[in-house]
Amino acid sequence: MFFAGIDLGSRKSKIAVFENDQLLSTYVDETGLGSARTAEMIMEKALKETGLSLDDLEVIVSTGYGRVVVPFAHKNISDILAHAKGSFWHFPSCRTILDLGGQDSKAINIDGQGRLTGFAMNDKCASGNGRFLETMAEIMGVPLEKMGEYALAAQDKVKFSSICAVFAKSEALSMMIKGRDKHEIVNGLHEIIRIQCRKLLELISIEKDLVMSGGVSKNLGVVALVREELGLEPLLAEDPQMVGAVGAAVVAREIFDRKKKDAK
Amino acid sequence: MVTTGIDVGHRTSKLVMLNDRKIIDQRVVENSDESTVIAERILGAGLQAVDIRREDIGFTVATGAMGKGLKFVDMYRTSMACLARGVYELFPQARTIIDLGGETCTVFKMGEGGGILDMQANDKCAAGTGIFFEAMAKLLGVSLDDMGRLATEGTKNFEISSMCVVFAEQEVISHAHENPDISAADLAASLHASIAARVAGLAKRLTVEKDVVLTGGCAKNPGYVKYMQEILKMDVKVPQDPQGVMAFGAALIAYEKGRK
Fold this sequence. Notes:
heterodimer, A: Nucleotidyltransferase, domain 5, 2 domains, five-stranded mixed sheet, 10 strands, 22% strand, globular, B: alpha/beta, Nucleotidyltransferase, domain 5, 8 helices
C-alpha cells in the first residue's frame, strides 16, 4: 500500500511517499507563487521517481501554509500535528519538538503515544526564521548552507542592537562595510536565532528527547546553539526539512488503517 | 547670536540655524556616511547658505539617535528633550506628541510648562516605523510622496494582519495577486490605515489628550496624518516642518545655553 504526505511550506514544498510503514521517496522544491501548481509538480516528480500513478496512492494528506489548495489531498492537517507525527515516527523517544521553518517557529510537546500535549508558536515576527537566514546569507554573500559553518568557525561574535530582521539586516550591512569579520557577523546573527528559540522553548516543557525539524534545523550552527542552550543533544532526522511531509504521510496511513478497520 | 541644532537620526540628518531664535537656515540630508562626516557636511552646507564662518556660531547642540559623540559641537541633548523643546515653542498647548521617525516611534505627554510627563517608545522592531513606509513605497513602485498622496485618495479595503515589515510585504503581494484589480490607491490607503492603527496603539498606552501633535519625517505623509485623525477620532496638529522639530528644539536649547 502506498501513501503520500505533502507539506506546502511558505518557502519550500515537500512530498514524502510511504510504502506501508516505510519511507519510499521524498522530493523538495521551491514553493513559488502558485501553490496548487507546485503541489501538482512535486507530486509528478515523486510519482515519476517511484514509478507509481496517482491512483496507487491510497490516501494523500496535506499540511503547511498551502495545505488547503492541494487539489488531490483527501485531508489536510495542521503543521503542528504533522511535525508531532513525523518526529514521533522518526524517534519514538521524542517528547519535545523544535520546528524552525521558513516563516514560523514552533515548540511542541508530545506524550509517549505521540499525542500532542502542548505547543507554542511564533508567526508574528520574522526574526530568526528561515527567511531571516536566507536574507542574511544573501547580503553577506555566504551560501545559505554554509551559514552554520561560518558561525561555528568564528572566534568571537558581534553584538546586534536589535533582533528585528529589518534592523539586523542594515546593521549587518554596515558592519560589512566597516570590515568586520564575516564569521563574527554570522555568529552574531545566530545569537538572534538563539534568543528567538529561547523565547519559544520557555513556553513549553523541555523533556527528553528533543527533536529539531524544519529547514533551519539543517543548519549545524543552530543545532549547536540549541545543544548549548538546553544542555542536551537534539535528535535530527536524516532530512529535518522533510519531517512535516513524513508526518502527513503517517496520518495518511492511519486514515487508511482506520477505514479498513471500519469496513470490517 | 547664531545658534545651531543638528539632529543626526537613523535615516536622515537635520540642521536648523537660528539668529536670535529666528530660523535662518534649515535642511535635511539622507544619511550616507558615518555620523561625524554627515554632521560636518550638513553644517558646512548651512554655513555656506547663510554665508557665515564656523566661528560666527555662538553655540551648537547635537541630538538624535546617532548624534552622540560629535566632537565639534558644544553639547549633546537627548532626542526627547530637543523634541519637547521644539514642540513647546510651536504648540504650547500640545499635550500628546507622537513622533514617527525612520526607525523609531516615540509617544510622550507634555505638561503645561513643556516638561515631559510620561513616554512610550518602540525602537526594537521595524513594525510601525518609517522604514515600513519606505519598504511599501518600493513594493508599490512609487515615491514616498506619491504613496502618501495616493493613500488619501484610496479607500481602505483590507487590514494587514502582520505588522512585521518582512511579513507585511508578503501580505501586500498576496493581496495584489488575489485581487489583481485593486488600485494602488486602495493598497496605499489600507497600508497607511494599518500603520496608523499600530502607532495609535502605542499612543493609547498613555491617555491621548488634546492637542495632539505629529512630528518626525512620517508626519509629512498626508495619508498617515489622515488615518491618525480617523483612528484617534480627533484633529491633530502638524508643524510646517515636522521632520525638523527636533533640530529646531536643539537650536533653541543652544540659544538658551549660549546666552548664559
